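#dry-run=false #mode=assembly
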Amino acid sequence: MIEMLDTLAHYFSFPFVRYAMIVGVLIALCSSLLGVTLVLKRFSFIGDGLAHVAFGAAAIATALSFTNNILFILPVTIICAILLLRTGQNTKIKGDASIAMLSVGALGLGYLIMNIFSTSANLAGDVCTVLFGSISILTLTITEVWLSAGLSVLVIAVFLLFYNRIFAVTFDEDFVKATGNRAKMYNLILSVVIAVVIVLAMNLVGALLISALVIFPAISAMRIYKTFKAVTICSVSMSVTCAALGIVISILAGTPVGSTIVAVNIAGFAIFNAVALVLRRV
Amino acid sequence: MQLTCQNLTIGYEGTAVISGLSFSVSAGDYLCIVGENGSGKTTLMKALLRLKSPDSGHIITGEGLAVNEIGYMPQQTAAQKDFPASVREVVRSGCLNRCGLRPFYSKREKQMAEENMERLGISDLATRCYRELSGGQQQRTLLARALCATRKILLLDEPAAGLDPGAAHEMYDIIKTLNDSGTTIIMISHDIGASVKYASHILHIGKQNASFFGKTADYLKSEAGLQYVESGGGEQ
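#status=ok
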């Protein structure tokens, strides 16, 4: 036990490990805030779709050798998020089909572009990093840390300020529209915030595993709590705990950060399920 | 006139569901919209709520009624069936149109939510989870929310759908009480018996334009009314 703590103390003396911890926790917090709304709006898969778009954008950014990829990835992902969430009832292609199309399309094109334009010797390793985020969280520069922290704070602020409105459009969009509120604008804000969270989360768990950060905490919290406020608070606490625990375990066991966090989230979901079953019996 | 519809034509992708419909509602009226399935009742409701724009014709509000002062009680959507929200959270969300740019509800608005829960007899359910309530309790919650949005005019889409006879009766009584205290009611209903019992006016939307709009007493003497009441509402 003491040996483990020593190892941890040793690792945490490196600034990049501390950065990873701070950014990881902030990302987990943001993604779980929005997870509740996405799950309830039946948009669980949107995280996945947008992450693939972000992957495609990252490939293009690499091919064009931009100095700061995020400045290109973020706008592209935001535009796609707006297009996806806008497609409500009045479209020829239904929500899930459009997400699936965008998602595989961006993934395929992204890999193609990376293959054609990549100058790197280790292409497979690069792709793996983007998809599973294996080391990118540990290679953050101080600028990226500040950028991530700033965006996270922005996401949290927007969520708090629009909390009542987000609740209302999630529960009943038609009622919000009919009573003269600007439901469209709230949806727009929601899509922008979701895109920001996805691009941030790519650093932590990689493009393929983002949905886990969005879905698991929300579904777990919904198993036990019955009010929107309680579910939100619970899913945030669970997500933050799982992310911190996942990062610590991955340091100690030398496992990839992203997949470890997902594994901890799955364990959390199992525990919440068990508790829910016990509560129902009593 | 609080609400006037002139020569409305509404449809989907070029096919008119409703054509050439005109009627008007004054403050304090109790209007029931009846008609067979597929006659366009819900489409009309969407147009009145500005969720769908009419292909032609006009919907005019008057007597100081603003467009955002129309309260709305929808039929349940699938998403709400497993939504984690307390009754209080749902009712309060009706106050949103009073907030303007303010991010949170004021004391006044929270108070109003409590009063409306009191009015509908669901105060003791305030902290209960919406999805665990009975159908009648859920409908009352949605009605309390609509009352938070406005006291002037309420649009109700099948308020008694899926309720047992007792709960349905209570629901109609509540609506009648609201109407007596000055709230204008526009209600879509399949329940022709309750419609002619409570409503002051009837709008019958029929196929092949066999429509009727007028006082309930006149409706019961009209050809459309006689047939429809005779058949027990077309589908029962």
